Amino acid sequence: VAQKLSEQMGRPGVTENRGGAGGIVGAESIAKAPPDGYALVMGTSGTHAINVSLYPKLSYDPLRDFAAVSRTALLPSMILAHPSVPAKNVRELIALAKKNPGQLTYASSGSAQYLTGALFTSMAQIEMLHVPYKGGGQAMPAQLGGEVALSFSTVVSSLPHVKSGRLRALAVTSAKRTPAAPEFPTVAESGLPDYAAVSWYGVFAPAGTPRDIVTRLNAEIVRALKLPEVHGLLLAQGAEPVSETPEQFTAIVKADIAKWGEVVRKSGAKAD
Question: What secondary structure letter does DSSP report for 178?
């Protein structure tokens, strides 16, 4: 998206990967940047919807300090089960967990995956034991080895192991079936109505960026996302291209802050 945005607007662009602290480092650098449209951040549902509840002393306000431009992609997860788990679908998983409260384990490698699982256990009214890992490089091998029974993993990282038969996909966490793997049902259609948990990526400018600049950026991002090569590349990565107006994106951020804030409060989770 950044590459196409640069080409379309005739401006050389530089993409900086500023990792750290659940995306806080990158987000706060743009919150403090001049509001001239030249400095943007590819935010996520983590940086702009979850962190405000997870980090008591967050250095930025996801609504006050940013101007939402547009989302670019949705990244659903899959509920994965080790073959040793007898459940073949979501209904069977919920029934199994109710018969064995607190005995089923699920892995996570970040706050988004953990809260995806926390939302599931809360809505299904079940207890499962959360086992945190430092990253996907540790969580996935642990599940493949049978150290944990379940995980909520991204579609792109899940599919190779599902296709090989080493793990079983019970459902996808999106509200609709994902184009990346349309053969798998959603959690909602598999026994837990209204469940939806999808990570998203989206572009933000600093607060105070002039409206005409935000409008132009939105138009160019939407244009880039419609290009076959961009659309195809995102699908190949297990992501679903998506876009909306700045007003619609702002409303989504507000709704997700409330949604995940409630999940964080119920789970008792807090980041250091």
Answer: -
Residues ≥6 apart with Cβ < 8 Å to 12: 6
Residue-averaged pLDDT of the chain: 92
The Cα 263–Cα 117 span in angstroms is 10
- Is 171 in contact with 89 (CB distance < 8 Å)? yes
pTM of the full structure = 0.89
Task: Give the closest residue to 200 by CA, choosing from 152, 253, 247.
Answer: 253
CA distance 149 to 151: 7
Pairwise CA distance, residues 181 & 188, whole Å: 16
Phi, psi of 135 (to 5 degrees): -170, 170
Cα→Cα distances 246→157, 212, 249, Å? 31, 12, 5
Amino acid at 124: A
Specify the DSSP element, H or E, that contains 149: none
Q: Name the token pair of 237.
A: 């990565």
Are 1 and 7 a contacting pair, CB within 8 Å? no
Nearest by Cα to 269 from 138, 161, 110, 135:
110
- 3-state SS, residue 108: strand
- Measured over the CA atoms of residue 110, residue 116, residue 117 and residue 118, the dihedral's sign is positive
CA distance 1 to 231: 10
- Of 8, 10, 5, 51, give the one whose Cα is nearest residue 27: 51
Copy the structure tokens of residue 95: 């029934």
Amino acid at 154: T
Both tokens of residue 212? Answer: 């005409």
Q: Residues near 14 by Cβ (< 8 Å), separated by ≥ 6?
A: none
pLDDT one-digit tens code per residue, 26-80: 899 999 999 999 999 999 999 999 999 988 889 999 999 999 999 999 999 999 9
Whether the CB-CB separation of 263 and 255 falls below 8 Å is answered with: no
